[in-house]
Design brief:
This protein starts with a helix and ends with a helix. It has helices at about 1-5, 35-50, 90-100, 125-140, 150-155, 165-180, 250-275, 290-295, 310-320, 345-355, 365-400, 410-415, and strands spanning about 10, 15-20, 20-25, 30-35, 65-70, 70-75, 80-85, 180-185, 205-215, 225-230, 235-240, 280-285, 325, 355. β6 (about 70-75) and β7 (about 80-85) form a beta hairpin. Strands 5-6-7-8-14 form a 5-stranded antiparallel β-sheet. By secondary structure, it is of the alpha+beta class.
């Protein structure tokens, strides 16, 4: 490929390549191409068929789909949908085969997921079966941000699973049974339009949202970091990770989350700039003002025992590689992977991220999204009205006061 068609390979991610305005992703003997149909049919395919036996499938009109790396790519009228190749029914069947029936649940996990586990350990056979189910969930959670926090916590117990692990897994399986198959919708990108940031000079925009749940794990007291990344408003990648250190404050845990999300964002930006051959703006959002202020300034100030990676991110901000913003907690989409959430909050975030039902491509949790967005709008309007009334009342009070003079004196005597 390199010699016959002058392929250029990405130094950051060697699986990516480009040639004559076409971009490729290669994984062993599987290849995904996005580009010109003419290049595919007249140049690339004939060249490959001279040396290899090639089977392929192309996206056509609305409703056509292809499979790549255990994922389904479905063409829609206003974009594309990516759905996991591992079906929810397969995961549920695997669990119920070994551990019995799982009742439908409306949330993937509860607060007890991070409590200390002192229950009896499983037998070797049950432990093996549990690891098989969690292995399927690890594939599924790559494309489903709603379960990545729960899967992360369950995977941490795979080395020595217990009866409590089975019960926690049963709840997650019940939620998957309730939601069935869901995917993520990628609408056609617009110039400089993202989830929160809009109106930039460049076309391509990368947004990174980060959040952390401080010392939520009662057994290890380690915080959970989550980051979600969007390219022109389209969900690109999400992660939920346990921090490697015990943070002594919420600001410290947010800093670790911001730095981890920034590293992921820099990698994604480098890949995008290689494929697109244009500049990509990187904006990062956090709802913690203390962490944002420490990142935005230069130097350590009065802080002691500071990690060097904070200074590294300060230099990235100063160089303009990443731009830091404050975002309201309601609109921080990375909250989805930090802790167990109420059902309404979870569905609101899923709809905002772009999750859709795999069968119909209808937005998932649209009703909850509209309700919470309306409540937030009403709250802001009421807050503005209250401030306006306060100013009017103060103005009336000031205008209604006459000059104050001492008893027995006249106003002219005081001038």
């Amino acid at each position: 490929m390199t010699s016959s068609m002058n392929f250029q390979w990405c130094s950051v991610q060697p699986c990516l390549a480009k040639c004559e305005g076409n971009v490729f992703m290669v994984h062993v003997d599987d290849l995904l191409l996005a580009g010109s149909r003419e290049f595919w049919t007249q140049k690339f395919l004939p060249t490959m068929q001279q040396k290899f036996s090639v089977s392929y499938k192309m996206l056509g009109g609305t409703g056509t789909e292809i499979n790549f790396l255990k994922g389904r790519l479905v063409m829609l009228s206003d974009g594309m949908m990516i759905a996991p190749g591992t079906s929810a029914a397969k995961v549920v069947e695997c669990f119920e085969k070994h551990f019995g029936h799982a009742r439908v649940q409306k949330v993937p996990c509860g607060s007890a997921l991070q409590q200390e586990d002192n229950s009896q350990k499983l037998t070797p056979t049950d432990a093996k079966n549990l690891r098989s189910v969690i292995g399927l969930l690890l594939y599924l959670s790559r494309d489903r941000v709603d379960i990545m926090f729960g899967v992360k916590e369950l995977a941490s117990a795979m080395s020595s699973p217990s009866l409590c692990s089975v019960q926690r897994l049963r709840k997650l399986i019940g939620f998957i049974k309730y939601t069935c198959d869901i995917g993520v919708k990628l609408p056609f990108p617009e110039h400089g339009v993202g989830k929160f940031k809009q109106g930039t000079e460049v076309f391509w925009l990368l947004e990174t949202y980060t959040d952390a749940d401080w010392s939520s794990n009662k057994a290890r007291r380690r915080s959970t970091s989550c980051s979600t990344h969007f390219v022109n408003g389209c969900f690109a990648y999400g992660s939920s990770r346990s921090q490697k250190v015990v943070s002594l404050s919420s600001a410290e845990s947010e800093l670790h989350s911001m730095i981890g999300g920034c590293c992921d964002g820099i990698f994604i930006r480098s890949c995008l700039q290689f494929l697109l051959s244009v500049d990509v703006e990187h904006h990062q959002f956090t709802d913690n003002s203390a962490a944002r202020q420490m990142i935005s300034r230069q130097g350590v100030g009065r802080i002691r025992h500071l990690s060097g990676k904070l200074l590294w991110m300060q230099s990235k901000v100063m160089d303009g590689d990443v731009i830091i913003h404050q975002v309201p907690t309601l609109w921080n989409y990375s909250d989805v992977g930090t802790k167990s959430l109420p059902r309404s909050r979870l569905l609101f975030l899923l709809c905002g991220i772009g999750m859709v039902e795999a069968d119909t491509a209808e937005p998932f949790g649209l009703e909850e999204y509209n309700n919470m967005a309306e409540q937030e709008t009403n709250r802001r309007e009421i807050s503005k009205l209250a401030k306006t009334l306060k100013r009017i009342t103060l103005l009336i009070t000031v205008q209604g006061l006459g000059p104050v003079v001492a008893e027995g004196a006249e106003i002219g005597d005081l001038q």
